[in-house]
Amino acid sequence: xxxxxxxxFAIGLCLVPARPESQSRPALSPNDITQINNVTQAFAKGVLxxxxxxxxxxxxxxxxxxxxxxxxxxxxxxxxACLAGLPGMTGFTVRTTSVEGRDDVAYSQGTYxxxxxxxxxxxxxxxxxxxxxxxxxxxxGRWLIAVHMLNAH
Length: 153
Known about the structure:
Blueprint lengths: L1 H14 L5 H4 L5 H19 L3 H5 L2 E8 L6 E2 L1 H9 L4 E14 L2 E13 L6 E14 L5 E10 L1
Parallel strand pairs: 1-6
Antiparallel strand pairs: 1-2, 3-4, 4-5, 5-6
């Protein structure tokens, strides 16, 4: 009888659904979401102001940037050089539509719009698209961009 009870107990444990790991990790706090949104806005403001050293500091040291129509740019120094090679801009805005994540990893997505100056004709060109950004929380509590992809319409 005792064996039968142990077998029934073991079978019962097998039938209890396991709790997914993502549920055991804490959700993003409102402060985390604010910090991630602030990084995204600092990116846009820094690019527009041509403060590429400051902008590249928003990325993790081993981050990857996927600019529209270009190959992957890996590492903070290469990201800074890539951004410094952007054509002149008279406008650049981003709008985050969602931020999701758990613990020390988050992703955000949204849209961007920019006005660049055609270097040959000196006329403004409007461009827009979507972005996806994966951020990692650092040991000091800051959120840095780990992967950043911008896709033109």
